[in-house]
From TrEMBL:
Main location: membrane
Keyword terms, alphabetized: Cell membrane, Membrane, Transmembrane, Transmembrane helix
Record-annotated VTT domain positions: 35-156
Transmembrane segments: 54-74, 137-162, 168-188
Keyword match Transmembrane: yes
Pfam families associated with the record: VTT_dom
Organism expressing this protein natively: Pseudonocardia kongjuensis
The name this protein goes by in its record: VTT domain-containing protein
InterPro entries assigned: DedA_domain, VTT_dom
Presence of the UniProt keyword Cell membrane in the record: yes
Amino acid sequence: MTDPTTLIGYLLDSPWLLPLLALAVVCDGPLPLVPSEPVLFSATASALADGDRWRIVALFGAALVGSLVGDALLYGAGRSSNRVVAGVRRDAGIGAWVRRHLHRRPIVALVATRLLPGGRLASVTAAGRVRLPLRAFVPATVASSLVWCSWMTGIGVLVGPFTHGDPLLSMLAGLLLALLVGGTAGAARRVLRYRRRALAPA
């Protein structure tokens, strides 16, 4: 039976890591359960422990490409067919907030929702549904992708000194941080929703 540490170490050192990371980032828009964040955390932490800064730059680039391609696909799905993204509610939550702000402040709308659970799917498909022009969507998605990639890569750099390049520890730290970020963002959303309901007139 293969040692999990050996298997994860092979993945993090594999020449297929960059295209697999880019593909995972493309897919985690419509499929938020795809673990692109832990892979990026872990690979960055491992590269930092090895002193390979160019690999960190390459990981950042692969994640950025995957983010931009995934956003383009979600935007196209939002424009072309409501059935493709039928699971996204149009009358409440992130999507409703984004639609209220997209035309006036598209960069703020996409950046503000990018780190929230499900925020990428809701915000980018909403941009397609409201027919946000490409001249506004492109800089907004570039800005949100840069913020997301910088945040995730930065967390990987912070994790590196604690895992010392151990593949299994890096992957576990990545999973825990992904759960922590998602749980914190989800809790913040629930608090804000509760406050809005409490302040709303009876």
